[in-house]
Amino acid sequence: MEPMIPLRIAVLTISDTRTDETDRSGQALVERLTQAGHQLVEKRIVPDDVYTIRAVVAQWIADPAVQGVITTGGTGFTGRDSTPEAVRVLLDKPIEGFGERFRQLSGEEIGSSTIQSRCLGGLANATVIFCLPGSTGACRTGWDGILAEQLDSRHKPCNFANLVIPERGQHG
């Protein structure tokens, strides 16, 4: 079997209350991506503010050292939840199936409450972006059920890793 090509991934936690010490969701993502062999480029926590979120994600999209961005938080329906509004306008191509598949997997765990998840994915400037809900369980579901395979360059018949790895010829 061919070796996996690790991706350089940034993790953004969106929360008005979490700190490095209390950010279990962001830490779960960092643990999973590094255990899978990927490289953590940066991890940040920002408040649930559309312009702050957009600025950080845009900065990472513009940085050639970042091939993937995973966010956690701000995807619900409460007043301050604004991750989809912040990120959607940055996408060159949305990945509609990501939210659909996430809600399908999540529904097995939390039932109809999954319809309140506005998680999304997409591609922008040869960077893959996935926005997950803020709960640690949702981050585990998203990584274990979708991202572990889709960010693995060996996954067949297709994966998103090969779209962001320049030497694979599908970059851009």
From TrEMBL:
<keyword id="KW-0501">Molybdenum cofactor biosynthesis</keyword>
<feature type="domain" description="MoaB/Mog">
    <location>
        <begin position="10"/>
        <end position="154"/>
    </location>
</feature>
<comment type="function">
    <text>May be involved in the biosynthesis of molybdopterin.</text>
</comment>
<protein>
    <recommendedName>
        <fullName>Molybdenum cofactor biosynthesis protein B</fullName>
    </recommendedName>
</protein>
<dbReference type="InterPro" id="IPR012245">
    <property type="entry name" value="MoaB"/>
</dbReference>
<comment type="similarity">
    <text>Belongs to the MoaB/Mog family.</text>
</comment>
<dbReference type="InterPro" id="IPR001453">
    <property type="entry name" value="MoaB/Mog_dom"/>
</dbReference>
<comment type="pathway">
    <text>Cofactor biosynthesis; molybdopterin biosynthesis.</text>
</comment>
<dbReference type="Pfam" id="PF00994">
    <property type="entry name" value="MoCF_biosynth"/>
</dbReference>
<dbReference type="InterPro" id="IPR036425">
    <property type="entry name" value="MoaB/Mog-like_dom_sf"/>
</dbReference>
<dbReference type="InterPro" id="IPR013484">
    <property type="entry name" value="MoaB_proteobac"/>
</dbReference>
